[in-house]
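Box 4.2: Ligand-aware structure prediction
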Amino acid sequence: MLDTIPNKTFHLNGLVIDLHPEVYDPAEDSFLMIEALKINYGDKILEIGTGCGLIALECARCGAQVICTDVNPFAVQLANHNSKRNRQMLKGTLEVRGGDLFSSIKERELFDIVIFNLPYLPASNEKKVCGWLDVATVGGKDGLQVTKRFIEGIKNISF
Ligand SMILES: C[S@@+](CC[C@H](N)C(=O)[O-])C[C@H]1O[C@@H](n2cnc3c(N)ncnc32)[C@H](O)[C@@H]1O
C-alpha cells in the first residue's frame, strides 16, 4: 500500500495528483514540458521518468495512448495510484511500467512522441547520489550521463 502525503495533492486541468516524499514533486520544468507539448487525439506517447505521472496523465487526458516508466519503484506505484484516481478524466489510455530508461519497452512498440524531463544537475564531489530525489535530479559527474544514455537508447525506439 502506497502512503501518499496527507493534504499534499496537486491539481491541474481537473486532474488530482497525490504526491509522495520519495518522488519528485511537479515543478516549473514539469509545467514548461506540458506547455510545450502539442498532443493529438490518438497519439502514441512514451514518457520516461514519469515521477507522480502528471505529464503522462495530462497526455492521456487529451486522448493520447500513453506508456510511462520510471526507475524509482515509489514513482511507479504513485503513477499507478494517480492513474486509477483520475481514470474518469482520461480520454486516452495510460500504462505504467518500471525500469531503467527503455528497458521495459518491447521491440515492436511504436511512438509518435517520446518525453523525458531528465535529471541534469552535475554531481558534486562531496555529495554522492544517495536517494530517489537525487536520482530524479542528478545526472552524473557532468550532469549529462543520463542524457547520453537516453540519446543512445532512443535510436532503437521506433517512430
Ligand atoms: C526531474 S524528475 C521528472 C518527473 C516528472 N516527469 C515531472 O516532470 O514532474 C525525473 C524523473 O526521472 C526518473 N529517472 C531518473 N533516471 C531514470 C532512468 N535512468 N530511467 C527511468 N527513469 C529515470 C526519476 O526517478 C524521476 O522520477
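In the box above, the bound molecule is S-adenosylmethionine. The helical segments are 28-36, 54-61, 73-85, 132-137, 145-154.
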